[in-house]
Description:
Elements: H1 2-58, H2 70-80, H3 148-157, H4 163-168, E1 191-193, E2 200-208, H5 212-219, E3 226-230, H6 236-245, E4 250-256, H7 275-286, E5 292-299, H8 307-317, E6 323-326, H9 335-341, E7 346-348, E8 351-352, H10 360-377, E9 379-384, H11 388-403, E10 407-409, H12 411-416, E11 418-420
Parallel strand pairs: 2-3, 2-9, 2-10, 3-4, 4-5, 5-6, 6-7, 8-9
Antiparallel strand pairs: 1-11
Helix pairs in contact: 7-8, 10-11
Amino acid sequence: MVAKRKTKKTDSLPKKANKSKRSTSRSQRGSLFIIAGFLFFIALAVSSVLILQKNKDNAKTPEPQPQLTEAQAKKKALAAAPANKPHPINLGDISIDDTVLEDGRASEPANLPPNVTITEDKEITPGEKSLSQKSVPLKSVPNEIEEPAKVSETKKNTSVITAEDQSRTNDDQVASLPPQEKALVEPDQRSEWIRPERPMIAVVLDDVGVNRRGAELAIELPGAITLAFMTYAPDVKEMAAEARRKGHELMLHVPMEPLGSADPGPKALLTGLSDEEILARLEWGMAQFDGYIGINNHMGSKFTGWRQGMEVVMSRIEQTDHFFMDSRTSPSSVAASVAASMGVPVLRRDVFIDNDYKNTLEILKQLKQAERIAKKNGHAIAIGHPHKSTVEVLHKWIKEAEARGFDIVPISAIMALKKTN
């Protein structure tokens, strides 16, 4: 009997151990569920806070913007405009991209603002009148006619009104004529040229100063060569003073907007600017150095075709003793015609000598073209740039041309040949 009882007690021990293990496993699973639930509630709470914050931000009403006057709006737009990129000719040697005739893109259609119209530089007969290109809106009147039949009937009954009758009429439906503008004239239409004993050729080197090495080479040329210093060239005042000491006549080279994508440089005159900003940029350029006798355009195949902008430029030059020389980077330039119409002394370029500046034979060929023009007209104006190749050709050509009967002269000598009637 005793042996049997002991056996029963021993058999019951494994059952108790298994029960303890099952209880521990259940406890662990319960803990995991609690932790997972806690993390889920934290994530839910964070998401709810973010959603509420986003809805709150979206619900904010925008602050009312102050009403700007037209002048303030223009000023704000100009202030927000991106700054001009550095000009490519500031980097290393001078690039040819800014010197080619018509800026390399003048044949492309211009992407002009609505208020800008490019006018061909052509002769206008004395009897031809030039009217403003801006349309004149009719004044608003009450009981405006809306039916097409009535409009056509009104047109039939409308008589021709002269300018004198129109100034006296009180009919609000008649739009007043815009003020008559001065007709553009060719610069030679009001002038005659004195023919010198020997043909004269003036050589003007543009873009001087943007490349220090090129400027030094140009300054070492004979004093008869005229140097046009760029307005934004570094240390331009010191370089210009050195050029004057060497006997050169100076011109102010003003950057203007070209057709295409080329960058004319800082403070360039652009077609999208107001008259006030154009004048401010021109004033800035004119203050960069002293001693220049004339002004000409850098690039400008787009801007020189815009009559309104050129009138602003010429109105300022008219107040000085300077003349304007049209570099003629585009056949559509009205610069010389506007200058002549406003009484500003004006000259025009005849030949570009170094569009192909790497080819010395081509440079010499263009100088020979200037000689032919000078023989025919008594004078010629050639424009080049301070490339090493151009300077080397000029050193040799000047002596040879003078031996052939030409006078190589400063630009003022050509201006002196022009008599204004």
